[in-house]
Amino acid sequence: MTDETNARNRAGELDVLRLDLVAEQEALDDVVANIADDQWLLSTPSPGWNVRDQIAHLTFFDHSGATAILQPARFQESVDELVANARHGSIDEFTLGTLRDHSPLELLGAWRRGREHLNDAASTLHVETRVPWYGPSMGSKSFLSARLMEVWAHGTDVVDALGAKRPASDRVRHVAQLGFITRKWSYLVRGEEVPDGDVRLELNGPSGNLWRWGPDDAADLIQGSAEDFALVVTQRRHVDDTSLKTGELGYHWLVRAQAFAGGRSDGPKPRSS
Q: Which CATH number is 174-254 given?
């Protein structure tokens, strides 16, 4: 049994999430820690973003997350600054601007410090705590799940750009669960009505566990790999490019699925199209 497993077994539900977030960050760190300087400039599947930008994005929002927990008033000021900047310029200029001037070593250092700051702040959370964020406040579990989802999703872009490998982990369960509970959001953000009928998930985790969400008598069923489902709900793959199996109602959701906050975002086109 690994040290990580031992720690998770001793931890409560919130601490498990925090430890899994740290482990997900470290897994991505392992991918980029020793790449060449020119690889930081490789384009990623996110339009206009290279590897450096992906890590810079995580760095900015890790620092923001720590501020939201420890200094909510200061965090709200930063939200107002971001909104004002978005009206007159680019959100990327606000969130990535100065970080784009960092050398790879400087950026790695800033990201690692931000992660440590976020972890220290997250260790003060309680299950009933609500964390202010960009939009409605979030429960502490949802907040940590969302941060882990961000690392996993942006890490996927980095891995794709580098042609690297990132070991599969059951931490993807957090991403899948977040994807499941944001089905309604995926329609609302598009101004669409949620179709009648529940959808059930039956997903296979990397370690062979079967994870289930939704009622047994749901109108439709989505089955397949938890990683494939996570790729779809984070808009890193089109459902047609995965092995997921579903009926009409599930497919109707998956082509709209959006597990993250913000405005409407349309995922990638099928690679075969």
A: 3.30.1050.10
Residue, of 273 and 26, whose pLDDT is higher? 26
Every domain of the chain and the residues it spans = 3-167, 174-254
Q: Into which CATH architecture does domain 3-167 fall?
A: Up-down Bundle (1.20)
pLDDT greater than 50 at residue 10 = no
Fill in the amino acid letter for 237.
R
Give the model confidence (pLDDT) of 24-51 as tens digits. Answer: 999 999 999 999 999 999 999 998 999 9
Confidence (pLDDT) at 9: 54
pLDDT digits (tens, 9 = 90+) for 255-265: 999 999 888 99
Query: In the 3-class helix/strand/coil scheme, how is the chain assigned residue by residue?
Result: CCHHHHHHHHCCHHHHHHHHHHHHHHHHHHHHCCCCHHHHHCECCCCCCEHHHHHHHHHHHHHHHHHHHHCHHHHHHHHHHHHHHHHHCCHHHHHHCHHHHCCHHHHHHHHHHHHHHHHHHHCCCCCCCEEEECEEEEEHHHHHHHHHHHHHHHHHHHHHHHCCCCCCCCCHHHHHHHHHHCHHHHHHCCCCCCCCCCEEEEEECCCCCEEEECCCCCCEEEEEEHHHHHHHHCCCCCHHHCCCECCHHHHHHHCCCCCCCCCCCCCCCCCCC
